[in-house]
């Protein structure tokens, strides 16, 4: 790991050109560390570079780490493409595997932490005007530590900038979870003070996104006694509720119409009123790296519909790879049959349900251009159905660039619907189910296109409210957005839910020799609540005690 700590001196920050609705970033051809840490313009550029480093996590062909934890849950079936490390076959999750994507996750987040450390420490070289930019660096450091802890648990905590003089004097030790969360909260508290509520540069951290993250951290501490320090679980539940309610009550953020949350062919923009933190991509700037290279989340979660007879990819969704797909268990949460599910507009907006004939030269008998594809004409086997015709996830599809294996659609990291569900869960933990069920019902009413503040026939009651009910609503709302695995781990239900629901009810055998139903259900073990620490990182640190129990 030591090379992570002195990259701050020897690695050049990458910078991007500016564009409308993007972070304003200035290209620099010659950069020195003194320019970044002693010049206000350089400092701002260094902070902007953190956004690039964070975006780089999703760019290019590294689909394995892109897919964690978006496809790693009980809501997803894995058909192919991700290899045997995914939790559908957790026996293959080993610390020494060269293909284990935990290596990249670990090192990339520590890069962000190290560069944030240097920027935060050098803020003393400037006057108070630099505080908003310092707050952005603190957000990245807090977010990276929070992510690493939830995945790996055992961490080295370092809040000081690393220099050539001290790089080889670092004493590695497994940090106390309470100390890690104390550092996270210190950063969040400082950032909340100095960040603005809103921004014209979509994609920047704001006070709203900071409070949302603070609420998530506090909710985690409500359950995890190791992280609580001297405060009680009730105190953290109250913190989670207060932070969430301040975001909900601020006024500039509101739940959007379901069809507008992730865009569509008619409305590709994802700058909706409920977005709190977004990672920007833009094809027009791709050549200069200003809009990010691209990502593959759209094609990974789209069926290989272009292999159907009478269908080509041009002008539709882009090329599909069908590596991961919504599971039968997930769809059953929307209703017991298709007619019931369609009443919930998330079912029809968050997933691509139908594919259409658009190739006049290869139409099956009896169909016309524009007809919906059905298996009656295709006559697919079970394996081919899960490859070509299964419903796709629409949340990452690039509706503007539809003839490519790549996507430049923006990635929504945090949005207001989750804030409501955090408030619901925190209220339940505080023994206020009346308030908790109202927050949950407002999310549900939005999904059914009903006035969100008026009681309705689809409401749950206070007596219905349980952690399991909230997890079900989180699944319907946030499926495959990277939150499910953390929510199951936080509530202590990861093993239970994976054993009960993972994979597909059909038990379809995938292309790499596993079984979508039984592998995850039969193989997941208690140790799998934590990722193994990459062995090469333990070797560099020289502290075998870093490895998590069971690996």
Provide the fold topology.
Blueprint: H1 2-10, H2 33-38, H3 40-56, H4 63-66, E1 76-78, H5 102-122, H6 131-152, H7 177-194, H8 207-223, H9 233-250, H10 258-261, E2 275-279, H11 297-300, E3 324-326, H12 328-334, H13 338-341, H14 345-349, E4 351-352, H15 375-378, H16 382-388, E5 392-393, E6 411-415, H17 416-429, H18 433-447, H19 467-478, H20 484-490, H21 494-501, H22 518-523, H23 535-541
Helix pairs in contact: 1-5, 3-5, 3-6, 5-6, 6-7, 7-8, 8-9, 8-17, 9-17, 12-19, 17-18, 17-19
Written overview of the protein:
With 551 residues, the chain is mainly alpha-helical. It is built from 23 helices and 6 strands. Strands 1-3 form a two-stranded antiparallel ribbon. Strands 2-6 form a two-stranded antiparallel sheet. Helix 1 (2-10) crosses helix 5 and helix 3 runs antiparallel to helix 5 (102-122).
Summarize this, please?
The chain has helices at residues 2-10, 33-38, 40-56, 63-66, 102-122, 131-152, 177-194, 207-223, 233-250, 258-261, 297-300, 328-334, 338-341, 345-349, 375-378, 382-388, 416-429, 433-447, 467-478, 484-490, 494-501, 518-523, 535-541, and strands spanning 76-78, 275-279, 324-326, 351-352, 392-393, 411-415. It has 551 residues and is mostly helical.
Structural class by secondary-structure content: mainly alpha
**Order of strands in the sheet with most strands:** 1-3
DSSP strand content: under 5%
Strand-and-helix sequence, N→C? Answer: HHHHEHHHHHHEHEHHHEHHEEHHHHHHH
Shape: globular
Mean pLDDT: 86
| Unreliable residue runs | 1-30
The major sheet is characterized as: 2 strands, antiparallel
Radius of gyration: 23 Å
Distance between the termini: 19 Å
Helical residues, percent: 40-55%
Number of helices: 23
**Number of distinct beta strands:** 6
């Amino acid at each position: 790991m030591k090379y992570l700590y002195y990259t701050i001196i020897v690695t050049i920050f990458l910078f991007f050109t500016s564009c409308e609705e993007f972070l304003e970033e200035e290209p620099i051809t010659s950069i020195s560390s003194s320019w970044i840490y002693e010049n206000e313009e350089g400092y701002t550029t260094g902070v902007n570079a953190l956004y690039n480093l964070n975006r780089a996590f999703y760019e290019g062909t590294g689909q394995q780490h892109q897919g964690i934890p978006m496809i790693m849950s009980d809501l997803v079936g894995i058909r192919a493409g991700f290899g045997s490390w995914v939790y559908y076959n957790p026996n293959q999750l080993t610390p020494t595997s060269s293909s284990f994507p935990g290596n990249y996750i670990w090192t990339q987040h520590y890069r962000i932490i190290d560069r944030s450390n240097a920027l935060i420490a050098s803020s003393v070289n400037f006057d108070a005007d630099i505080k908003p930019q310092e707050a952005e660096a603190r957000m990245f450091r807090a977010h990276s530590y929070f992510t690493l802890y939830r995945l790996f648990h055992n961490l080295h905590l370092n809040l000081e900038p690393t220099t050539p003089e001290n790089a080889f004097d670092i004493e590695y030790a497994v940090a106390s979870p309470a100390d890690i969360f104390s550092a996270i909260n210190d950063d969040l508290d400082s950032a909340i003070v100095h960040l603005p509520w809103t921004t014209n540069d979509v994609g920047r951290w704001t006070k709203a996104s900071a409070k949302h993250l603070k609420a998530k951290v506090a909710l985690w501490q409500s359950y995890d006694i190791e992280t609580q320090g001297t405060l009680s679980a009730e105190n953290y539940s109250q913190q989670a509720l207060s932070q969430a309610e301040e975001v909900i009550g601020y006024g500039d953020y509101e739940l959007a119409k379901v069809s507008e949350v992730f865009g569509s062919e008619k409305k590709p923009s994802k700058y909706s009123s409920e977005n709190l933190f977004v990672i920007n991509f833009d094809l027009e700037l791709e050549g200069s790296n200003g809009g990010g290279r691209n990502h593959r989340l759209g094609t990974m979660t789209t069926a290989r519909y272009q292999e159907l007879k009478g269908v080509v990819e041009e002008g539709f969704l882009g090329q599909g790879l069908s590596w991961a797909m919504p599971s039968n268990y997930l769809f059953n949460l929307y209703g017991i049959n298709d007619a019931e599910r369609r009443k919930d507009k998330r079912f029809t907006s968050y997933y691509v349900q139908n594919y259409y004939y658009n190739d006049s030269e290869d139409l099956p008998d009896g169909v016309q251009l524009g007809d919906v594809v059905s298996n009656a004409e295709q006559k697919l086997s079970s394996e081919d159905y899960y490859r070509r015709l299964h419903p796709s996830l629409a949340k990452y599809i690039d509706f503007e660039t539809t003839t490519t294996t790549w996507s430049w659609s923006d990635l929504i990291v945090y949005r207001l619907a989750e804030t409501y569900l955090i408030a619901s869960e925190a209220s339940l933990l505080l023994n206020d189910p009346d308030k908790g069920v109202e927050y949950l019902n407002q999310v549900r009413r939005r999904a059914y296109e009903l006035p969100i503040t008026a009681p309705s026939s689809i409401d749950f009651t206070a007596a219905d409210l349980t952690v399991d009910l909230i997890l079900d609503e989180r699944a319907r709302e946030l499926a495959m957005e990277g939150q499910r695995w953390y929510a199951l781990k936080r509530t202590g239900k990861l093993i239970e839910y994976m054993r009960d629901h993972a994979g597909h009810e059909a038990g379809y055998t995938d292309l790499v020799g596993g079984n979508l139903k039984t592998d995850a259900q039969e193989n997941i073990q208690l140790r799998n609540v934590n990722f193994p620490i990459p062995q090469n990182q333990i070797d560099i640190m020289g502290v075998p005690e870093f490895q998590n129990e069971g690996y």
